[in-house]
Amino acid sequence: MACWRTDPWCRRGESLPNQLPCGPMKLHVRAAQSRPRAKVATMRADEYDAWYESARGRWIGETEFRLLRRLLALRPGQSLLDVGCGTGWFTRRFASILGLKVVGLDCNAQWLEYAREHDCRSQYLLGDSCCLPFANASFDCVVSIAALCFIDDWPRALREIVRVARGRIVVGTLNRASLLWRSKGQEGGSGAYRGARWHTRAQLRFALAALPVRNLEFHSAIFVPTASRMARAAEAVLPTRLPWGGLLVAAGDRLSPWDGK
């Protein structure tokens, strides 16, 4: 399968309709044979989502969602792509924002079926994050939450995220400079973090420097990953500009063609 591409990164192009249809789309996109292998989660979808129903999981998820929503600065009527959406926990929260057109993409067919069963407002597509099946600048905003951590060629996936955006880009990764890494990331990781890549701000900045992104800023969340009273108090007072939260977030704007790209 070839990617839909039209800029210097790509060889051919084909556009999508301006208006994405509402409701779930039962379209599966077959990944290219030569694509870099992504690490596919072995946890069941219901087990993964159940963690977000625990006291700690819900606090972490809602805290991260608030930061991502603020950085995306979404407006009614905009389109949003969630790359590496998994079970759709974040996707369906974005879809609950009035008037948004939301698409989730993931390489795990079983997790996508779970996502469709629990969300009738979004479209869910099976596809490859390193070869997104969309034309350049197809979405007003693109978000990706802890997906690059499980993709071997994550700079290529990041390049694809930038390519299909025409506005805001927000990418969250696991933070190497965090207490969460100290407790869950060392020696190959444990639990759901096993095999994950933990990024640094310098790595993301270097990768994004080669891409047409402006107004780049970094934030983080979940400074103390316990959901204790102390953790919640720290989250309430510490500025997200501090680089030590468990979720490291890079946010910026895609340069328009008239900006030189």
Query: Order of strands across the widest beta sheet?
Result: 3-2-1-4-5-7-6
CATH superfamily: Vaccinia Virus protein VP39
In N-to-C order, the SSE pattern is: HHEHEHEEHEHHEHE
Mind telling me the CATH class? Alpha Beta
Strand content: 15-25%
Distance between the termini: 26 Å
Radius of gyration, in Å, reads 17 Å
Here the CATH topology equals Rossmann fold
Overall geometry comes to globular
Uncertain runs are: 1-40
Counting helices, strands and paired strands, the structural category is alpha/beta
Query: What CATH architecture label applies?
Result: 3-Layer(aba) Sandwich
Helix run count: 8
Q: How many beta-strand segments?
A: 7
Domain unit count: 1
Arithmetic mean pLDDT: 85
Proportion of residues in helical segments:
25-40%
Largest sheet geometry: 7 strands, mixed
What does this molecule look like?
This protein is α/β, with parallel strands linked by helices. The protein has one domain (45-256): Rossmann fold, CATH 3.40.50. It is 30% helix and 19% strand. It has eight helices and seven strands, in the order ααβαβαββαβααβαβ. The protein has a seven-stranded mixed beta sheet with strand order 3-2-1-4-5-7-6, with helices on both faces. Residues 1-40 have low confidence and may be disordered.
Properties at a glance:
alpha/beta, Rossmann fold, 30% helix, globular
Protein topology:
Blueprint: H1 45-51, H2 55-72, E1 79-83, H3 89-95, E2 101-106, H4 109-117, E3 123-126, E4 139-145, H5 154-164, E5 165-174, H6 179-185, H7 201-209, E6 213-221, H8 229-237, E7 247-254
Parallel strand pairs: 1-2, 1-4, 2-3, 4-5
Antiparallel strand pairs: 5-7, 6-7
